[in-house]
Each structure stands twice: as C-alpha cells, then as structure tokens.
Write a structure and sequence with these properties.
CATH topology of the largest domain: hpI Integrase, Chain A
Helix content: 40-55%
Shape: elongated
Number of domains: 3
Largest sheet: 3 strands, antiparallel
CATH superfamily of the largest domain: Intergrase catalytic core
Structural class: mainly alpha
Strand content: 5-15%
Radius of gyration: 34 Å
Distance between the termini: 126 Å
Number of strands: 8
CATH class of the largest domain: Mainly Alpha
C-alpha cells in the first residue's frame, strides 16, 4: 500500500496503490490503482476503500479453492508420499496424472470448485471426437472422479452446485461391448502345438506351458527352476515379470498359487531342463516377448499353418480355462489354478465353454425321430 504525490500541469495530485496477496494461496494477488486525487485526505479515504475491496476479493477467491492443475499436483504429491500404504503404485499414479493432464488440459487454470457438469460433458465429448476407445473413456472418467473426490475430502475444493460430485459423475461414457472373444478350438490348439514342435519353433515350449498351466505372460517369464516341485508335481507361481519396471512383482491378484503339472507337461519340462538346466529361468526371454510382441509372433505362426484368428498371447490362457471347463473340471478348481479371484471376470470363460447351459434343453423332446415308420398306423392291410 502506498500514497504518492505527483505534479501534473503544475498541480499537485495524489496516487493510491493497493496490493494484496492470499494468506493460504500465495498465487492469488489483486492490485488496485487510483490517481488524480487532489488532496491527501481524499487519497487516504480511497486507500481504505480499495483495501477493503481487495481484501474481500482475495478472501472470496481463497474460499473457492485451488485450480484444477493445483488439485492434480497436490493429489500426486500426497499419493506418492503414502506409497506402500494404499492401492496405488508409482505407475498407476503416473497413469492417472498423465490422463488428467492430457484430457482435462482445458480445466488447468480453472478453479476446481467452479467446474460444472457442462465442463465434464465437454471433456468427454472432446475425447470421443479424438476417436479414443470406450475403455479409455472410462479410465478418464475414473481418474477425474478419483482426484476430484480427494480434493473435496481434503477441503481443497469447496462444495458447489454439483453437491459434492465430480463434473463427470454419472456421465455415461460408452458401455462395454459384449463381443465373443476369439479363441482356439481344441483341435486348433493341438494343431498349433503339433506344428510348432515338428518345426522346432523356438516359442513351442512357451506356448505349450501357457496352454497347460494358464499362467500369465509375466508369470511365465518369471518362472525359475526353483519354482518347480517335480516330486509333488506342482509349479509355485509367486512372481511376475513387469516390463514397465523391468523387474519382478507379485502376480496380478497379489497372492501366490500352485499349478498342477500333468504327465505331458512333466515330460516337456524334462526336455527343457536338458537344454536349460544351468539357466536361471525355465523359458528363454526373447526380445519380442519382453517388449510386448508375443501376440504378433503367435498370430504369424497361426496364419502360416492356416489358422486365421485375431488372437493375442493371453488367448492361450483363455484356451486353458475354456477347454478345462468343457471337460467337466470344477470351475472353482480352474479359478484357483489360474489365479482368478474375480468370479465376474471368470464368467467369460464359463460362457465360452458352454457349461452354464449344457444339458438344459435335453428335456425338450419335440423333434421326430429319423425313423418315423414305427409310429405309423397302416390304413389298409
């Protein structure tokens, strides 16, 4: 605050300058200047008025809270500071922040409390116009809801017309498409492994073990000889390779499990041991596998033997579950061996195997037998 005198056209005048910063949010700054005052008393009166005006304006702005970019930054810092005590890791935090910075950049300088449902629809519609997938749309909505709710709970965002909900809360962003997943039939699985073995394809043992155990790609890469208990006929799955950290982590569901070794797999493991007994890992780590192109290798080989299906490496895990279920193995045992903890996810394989409806229509006896003469009554002898 300052009152200064100056001379204009030979007349002494006064200028008042007022500057106020936020006490909680230092980024808030309001300035006011008034000049042309003809007396010091008039200047002092104006100074008081301006001071009251800027103080009220700063208080109002502070009451509205932080901008959206500041909310994202504080959420990131707070969540990184509590690593190991929650459901986030460094990669999931980075994913949330990346999505928010990329798809909500229009909100960056807006006060979070001022965001409306219209702002939410605008962000979603803009993302749709870029042609992104429904699954990514749902992840964007999830990230916004997550960080906005955190801001409300921490008091960084003031309640507004949204009644404590994020700008995208409740917005429909595209339902999941219930498509039949491509899967290899049992005959196609046998053809795949038979041809791969005959041609001595380097991926043969990887594909064979994947189909025989249902292990995930990362779990297969992390498989060591010490994980195989030949005496009891089990594989202990306790770790998984993660390409993002270029190291080991827990399996996807966070718990270890045992996998049964059948007689065919037992013989295959003996063959592999002859070649790789001195290696740490049971299976070779090909560059294509390490960098996410395992599905491409599989598709190219399948096309070469006349099987044209848009499969991915994970399809082998689906084959394991589906074909075991179709032979009558109890679903709970298949879930336990494959490491599925979510029954909702596992329902996909129950439907693919057809066991959920198998035998239901047997009692519907309506189609005539192929030999209809047995029930014909002769009219003439």
């Amino acid at each position: 605050m300052a009152i200064r005198e100056y001379v204009k056209d030979g007349k002494k005048l006064y200028k008042v300058y007022v500057n106020e910063r936020g006490k909680k949010l230092k980024r808030i700054r309001i300035q006011r200047i008034i000049s042309g005052l003809d007396s010091i008393n008039a200047a002092r009166r104006e100074e008081k008025k301006l001071l009251k005006e800027v103080t009220e304006a700063v208080a109002k702005l502070e009451g509205r809270g932080l901008t959206w970019s500041e909310i994202i930054y504080r959420w990131e810092i707070s969540t990184r500071g509590s690593l190991g005590f929650g459901r986030f890791n460094v990669h999931s935090i980075a994913d949330h922040v990346h999505r928010l910075e990329r798809y909500t950049d229009l909100w960056a300088l807006k006060v979070a409390s001022d965001l409306t449902r219209a702002d939410g629809r605008h962000v979603i519609n803009l993302a749709i116009s870029k042609g992104i997938s429904p699954s990514l749309l749902r992840r964007i909505r999830s990230s916004i809801n997550l960080v906005y709710t955190w801001g409300l709970e921490e008091g960084f965002i003031q309640h507004n017309s949204l009644s404590g909900k994020s700008p995208v809360h409740g917005l429909v962003v595209g339902g999941k498409e219930d498509k039949v997943k491509p899967i290899l039939t049992l005959d196609e699985v046998r053809k795949l492994l038979l041809e791969a073995k005959a041609r001595k394809h380097p991926w043969y043992p990887i594909w064979a073990i994947a189909i025989s155990t249902g292990m995930r790609s990362g779990e297969l890469q992390a498989l060591e000889w010490g994980d195989i208990d030949e005496k009891n006929g089990i594989i202990r799955v306790s770790k998984s390779f993660n390409k993002r950290i270029n190291g080991m982590k827990c399996p996807k569901n966070g718990t270890w499990r045992n996998v049964d070794i059948n007689s065919q797999l037992k013989e295959l493991l003996k063959e592999i041991r002859l070649e790789r007994a001195h290696e740490q890992f049971v299976l070779p780590h090909f560059p294509e596998w390490k960098y996410g192109d395992a599905g491409k290798v599989l598709r190219l080989f399948l096309e070469g033997i006349g099987i044209k299906k848009r499969v991915v490496f994970h399809t082998l895990r689906a084959c394991f579950a589906t074909h075991l279920l179709s032979t009558g193995v109890e679903p709970l045992k298949v879930m336990r061996m494959g490491g599925w903890s979510d029954l909702k996810t596992f329902q996909i394989y129950l439907r693919l195997s057809g066991i959920d409806v198998k035998g239901v229509a047997e009692a519907l006896d309506v189609i005539p037998s192929s030999d209809t003469t047995l029930n014909v009554i002769p009219l003439f002898s």
